[in-house]
Amino acid sequence: MRTDRGGQSALLLLDVVEILRREKVDYAVIGAFALSVLGVVRATMDVDALLFAKPARLAKLAKKFQQEGFGTELRTAEADGPVSGMLVLSDDFGNCVELLGGLRNMDPEIFSRTLKITFRDEKLRIVGREDFIAMKCYAGGPQDLLDARSAYQAAPGPIDLDLLRTLTRRFGREAADRLQEVLAG
Fold first, then answer.
1. Residues 89, 12 share a domain
2. 74 and 104 share a domain?
3. Collapsing DSSP states into helix, strand and coil, what is residue 161?
4. Helix, strand, or coil here: 99?
5. Torsion over CA: 121, 126, 26, 84 (sign)
6. Which site from 21, 48, 58, 100 is most exposed, i.e. has the minimal number of CB atoms within 10 Å?
């Protein structure tokens, strides 16, 4: 592993992505790390990534990561919960990467819209701005809505509002209503 102390979750992500690639698992980095790529820096102690993996696939991945020396915690989804399971990966220094198995009603084309960036000479896939905003509106907490608004306002160019509205509507009426608040304010 690349990490040698705490505060290096982004480096742990590089090790995680290496294994995801080997296992042929699509991913998109989300959360505060993605927000920083989208133009707004916000402190965080972990890194989040989104997969399209059913619980059985997450369990197989947990075993693979454990074999590679990661601390693993597999969290199962609630039947009507928004997240279809989560795999929390850690190292001996407290660095953490959380892999979400998927989101209910997530557009399966999300991975085709990722942004490719280079971090420490490694290629990473970051969730696209419209998908990021839609997911944050779906999550709906105060920090989520602040993140959505920040990502919207920091856009260096035009945002595809039709795509953004379509993606957000997939998550339901409440998410669509939150999007209107984000766009208004």
1. yes
2. yes
3. helix
4. strand
5. positive
6. 21
CA dist 184 and 175 (Å) reads 14
- The whole-angstrom separation of Cα 138 and Cα 151 is 15
Q: Are 97 and 32 in contact (CB under 8 A)?
A: no
- Tens of pLDDT along 25-69? 999 999 999 999 999 998 889 999 999 998 899 999 999 999 999
Please report, for the domain that includes residue 87, its CATH number: 3.30.460.40
What Cα–Cα distance (Å) separates residue 99 from each residue in 72, 93, 115? Answer: 11, 18, 18
- Distance separating alpha carbons of residues 89 and 98, to the nearest angstrom: 6
> Token pair 């059913």 is at which residue?
54
pLDDT (tens digit, 9 = 90+) per residue, 124-165? 999 999 999 999 999 999 999 999 999 999 999 999 999 999
Q: Which position has the token pair 């915690």? A: 73
| Domain carrying residue 150 | 129-185
First to last CA, the chain: 43
